[in-house]
Design goal:
The protein is an alpha/beta fold and about 475 residues long. Helix content is about 30%, strand content about 20%.
């Protein structure tokens, strides 16, 4: 791939030396083989080796570790707290509270891990703001806050005028803040995880693409570099899962999140009070999100743009964003009057599930073949938790994670193609028109309001009633 997203390009340049990729040895056998060298695969391998060092673990990655979705997302560390009502409806109260609290703790655990292992990834746990960037968004979070209060797990605080200024934009009319959040350079984190995994003895074979597997115990895995044998196989490929396994062709929709990053503008960011690492997200369905970097850049992104037909990983995901006009409009919306120089745009694939939550389980009920998918645009923190689930399933040693409610679900399905893509664009365009009207403080067309209801769990702020 010639074009690189900003994060991954920077991460590779920062590495002292790039060793030649390892080749798959002849007659290679591993206790556990993980397909995918992103966040989920690497966190899983590390946790398995930490818990059972004698296990042999091999990761095969079709490109370079972090070159997929993990190295090109927005780098915001977000929790599940704003989705508590729908999480309760999905997994029950006990599991939902456990997962929300674990997601909040995970933010701090990731920072501790990075510090402990000297991973220089600009990890700043400076919290998270959810804002209302137009009048219609004011109060959107209220039902979720009531639910969090009901179960005594509410870490969110209403921002006063001084705290609101830290969101950096006068367009934000109100905001809530939680200390459980922040930002990170995702590609540097994933490359750091690769180094730690190798230090623990994990075999990592890059540029090694999975083709198929067969057998029961042991399993034989075919790759473009030859075959390997393993006792347990884990699919940790996320956006690539529908392409590899047709069983998941309707379990997700593959949609882009498009991002831009500015050149260093530290003086302007200081004037805007954006001299911190908080993640800032508004409360619309296709959210605007932005954060800064320690070297004084502003990164802004927007979800819900390109829907990939039949969930194939389209070449567009390896190109500059095709939605530069929309990104520029969002930048102008929040930072009107500031001529912010854009250095690069890029696109990341997000595998959105029907529920908006990830899913894990045993492929075709085979106990030694596991999968993860459906992070729905919330990958950094949630992949850390997903690895705990996969590790528990692989080692059969942590019942609370094995039975957390996200394992072996009966997965709701999206419609088949071409209905899926046509419907997705119909709803997307209605949401865009509705939210554009709301930005102008005018009334949206009733048809657009009606169609927008079919967005389901796409928003990061829960719209479900309190259970």
């Amino acid at each position: 791939m010639n074009y690189q997203p900003f994060w991954f390009d920077s991460a590779l340049k920062a590495e002292a030396a790039t060793a030649l990729p390892s080749r798959l040895p002849d007659n290679h056998h591993s206790d556990i083989c993980i397909i995918g060298g992103g966040f989920t695969g690497l966190w899983s391998a590390i946790q398995i080796k930490q818990q059972q060092p004698s296990k042999t673990v091999t990761i095969i990655e079709q490109g370079l570790c972090g070159q997929g979705a993990s190295g090109r997302n927005g780098g915001a560390m977000l929790t599940w707290s704003t989705k508590l009502p729908s999480l309760i409806n999905l997994v029950g109260i006990e599991n939902a509270l456990f997962l929300v609290q674990q997601s909040e703790q995970a933010v701090h655990s990731i920072k501790h891990f990075a510090q402990q292992h000297a991973i220089d990834c600009d990890c700043r746990v400076d919290g998270c703001f959810y804002t209302a960037s137009n009048p219609s968004q004011v109060g959107v979070l209220s039902q979720t806050l009531q639910c969090l209060d009901k179960f005594n797990v509410n870490a969110w605080q209403q921002c006063d005028a001084q705290a609101l200024r830290k969101t950096g934009s006068k367009q934000n009319l109100s905001a809530h803040f939680s200390a459980h959040g922040g930002s990170i350079q995702p590609a540097k984190l994933v490359r750091g995880l690769k180094r730690v995994a190798q230090q623990l003895g994990v075999h990592i074979i890059e540029q090694c693409a999975y083709q198929q597997h067969f057998g029961e115990q042991p399993l034989t895995v075919h790759t473009n570099q030859g075959n390997l044998v393993c006792n347990t196989l884990i699919f940790a490929v996320n956006a690539w899962l529908p392409s590899l396994r047709k069983e998941f062709s309707r379990a997700v929709v593959l949609v882009s999140s498009d991002m831009l990053i500015t050149q260093p503008i530290p003086t302007i960011l200081a004037q805007l009070k954006l001299n911190h690492g908080s993640a800032i997200i508004d409360s619309r369905v296709f959210v605007n999100y932005y954060r800064t970097t320690s070297d004084g850049r502003l990164m802004l992104g927007k979800g819900g743009n390109f829907f990939s037909f039949n969930n194939k990983v389209h070449p567009r995901f390896d190109m500059p964003s095709q939605y530069g006009d929309i990104l520029q409009a969002s930048l102008n919306y929040f930072f009107n009057g500031h001529d912010l120089p854009i250095e690069r745009t890029w696109t990341g694939p997000s595998d959105r599930s029907v529920t908006g939550f990830p899913f894990f389980g045993h492929l075709n009920n085979q106990k030694n073949v596991l999968y993860a998918g459906g992070y729905s645009g919330n990958g950094i923190v949630q992949s850390y938790l997903g690895a705990k689930i996969l590790c528990a399933l692989a080692l059969n040693n942590a019942p609370q994670w094995q039975n957390c409610g996200l394992v072996n679900q009966s997965l709701p399905q999206f419609p088949p193609e071409p209905i899926r893509s046509a419907g997705a664009y119909l709803v997307r365009n209605a949401i865009r028109r509705k939210e554009s009207a709301e930005d102008r403080n005018s009334s949206a067309h009733p048809i657009d309001k009606f169609l927008a209801q079919f967005s389901g769990a796409a928003a990061k702020v829960d719209s479900q009633a309190t259970p």
